[in-house]
Amino acid sequence: MEVYLNGEFVPYERATVSIEDRGLLFADGIYEVVRTYNGKLFAMSPHLDRLVRSAAIMRLPLPPVEEIRAAIEECVRRSPYPETSVYLQVTRGNPGPRKHAMPKESRPTIFMIAREAPPLDPSPVTKAVAAITVPDLRWHMCNVKSVGLFLNTLAKTQAEEAGAAEAIFVRDGIVTEGSSTNLFAVIDGVLRTHPEGPHILSGITRMHIIEAAKHLGIPVREEAFGVSAMLAASEVFFTGTGSEAMPVGLIDGHVIGEGTPGPIAGRVREGMLRTAGAI
């Protein structure tokens, strides 16, 4: 396996970075994950736009975007897999001895690795997963796709320990998102999701799900809601690059709707996949 590291492809075993890289010392970095459908990268421009936004907020220098785009495409070209997921990470690199203040000048560390993406299953989703709720103790810049993900990983671990597939963050009684997903709920016939802002990551799949719903004539409202409204919803589902649209049948032991995948999750997933050229 080869890894893209700072402008070149090197064997996996030789892909190393400095022990004083600020990504290691301070989680001073950002990332993206882009996948293919039918061998073609899906929504790469929105992913790169978000990378640029995250970098700007973190004052993190980036290589030219077209250079990044070309490297992602080359990762896919070299991939031996039918479907590929490319993980991209940029850190502030190693500008010198450890120091909290951001250096005036730095050379970023950028690497990418291609992994096998699960093949598309075009058939309707027939299983709903279980989820738990956890307090959202994360910082107020969740819109930055930062590598500082301790509380996300802790929440996901708590979900696995509870026999659930995902954890749902709740901040001051308001449902925000999943530990690695965005969340939608069908409440009184309206597809609801937390609005963009500092308390959620604005997901690329989330964006395409909203577009698909509007195209299908499904009313959508980007408006916050509480736990009780979520538990009373007729449908709840997660969205993300890996999960697409994942129905939720149980939250904290409470059955959602009929406890099975609802019709809207399936319709918007199909709409998104058609946009992706996957079906």
Describe this structure in words.
- The chain has 279 residues and is an alpha+beta fold.
- It folds into two domains: 2-116, Aminotransferase class 4, branched-chain amino acid transferase, N-terminal domain (D-amino Acid Aminotransferase, Chain A, domain 1, 2-Layer Sandwich); 129-275, D-amino Acid Aminotransferase, Chain A, domain 2.
- The chain contains seven helices and 15 strands.
- Strands 7, 8, 9, 10, 11, 12, 13, 14 and 15 form a nine-stranded mixed sheet that branches. The chain has a six-stranded antiparallel sheet with strand order 2-1-6-5-3-4.
- Helix 5 (204-215) crosses helix 7 (263-275).
- The longest helix is centred in the first third of the chain and has 14 residues, at 44-57.
- The mean pLDDT is 96.
Write the layout of secondary structure elements.
Layout: E1 2-5, E2 8-11, H1 22-26, E3 29-37, E4 40-41, H2 44-57, H3 65-78, E5 84-91, E6 109-116, E7 129-135, H4 150-161, E8 166-171, E9 174-178, E10 182-187, E11 190-193, H5 204-215, E12 220-222, H6 227-231, E13 235-240, E14 244-251, E15 254-255, H7 263-275
Parallel strand pairs: 7-8, 7-14, 11-12
Antiparallel strand pairs: 1-2, 1-6, 3-4, 3-5, 5-6, 8-9, 10-11, 10-13, 13-14, 14-15
Helix pairs in contact: 5-7
